[in-house]
Amino acid sequence: MEITSVDLLNKLKEFFGFDSFKGEQEEIIRHLIGGNDTFVLMPTGGGKSLCYQLPALVMDGTAIVISPLIALMKNQVDAIRGFVANKNKEGVAHFLNSSLNKTQIQEVKDDLLSGATKLLYVAPESLTKEENIQLLKQIKISFYAIDEAHCISEWGHDFRPEYRKIRSIVEEIGVAPIIALTATATPKVQSDIQKNLSMSDAKVFKDSFNRKNLYYEIRDKTNVKREIIKFIKNNRGKSGIIYCLSRKKVEDIAEFLNVNGIKARPYHAGMDAATRAKNQDAFLMEEVDVIVATIAFGMGIDKPDVRFVIHYDIPKSLEGYYQETGRAGRDGKEGQCIAFYSYKDIQKLEKFMQGKPLAEQEIGKQLLLETVSYAESNRCRRKIILNYFGEGYDEENCGCCDNCLHPKKLFDGQEDLLLVIELINSMRERFKAEHLANILGGVSNSIIKSYEHHQHELFGIGKDKGPRYWMAIIRQGLILHFLDKDIEQYGLAFVTPKGEEFFKTPYQVMMTEDREFTDGDDEDEDEDVIIGNNKQAAGGADPVLFAMLKDVRHSLSKRLKLPPFVIFTDPSLEDMSLHYPITVDELKNCQGVGEGKAKKYGKEFLALIEKYVEENDIDRPTDFVVKSVVNKSANKVYIIQNIDRKIPLDDIADAKNMELSELIAELEAIVNAGTKINIDYYLRQNIDEDKIDDIYEYFRYDASSDSVIEAMKELGRDYSEEEVRLVRIKFMSELAN
Ligand code: ADP
Ligand code: MG
Question: In sequence order, which residues have a C-beta less than 8 Å from that of residue 714 and are 6 or more positions away?
Answer without folding.
Answer: 698, 702, 703
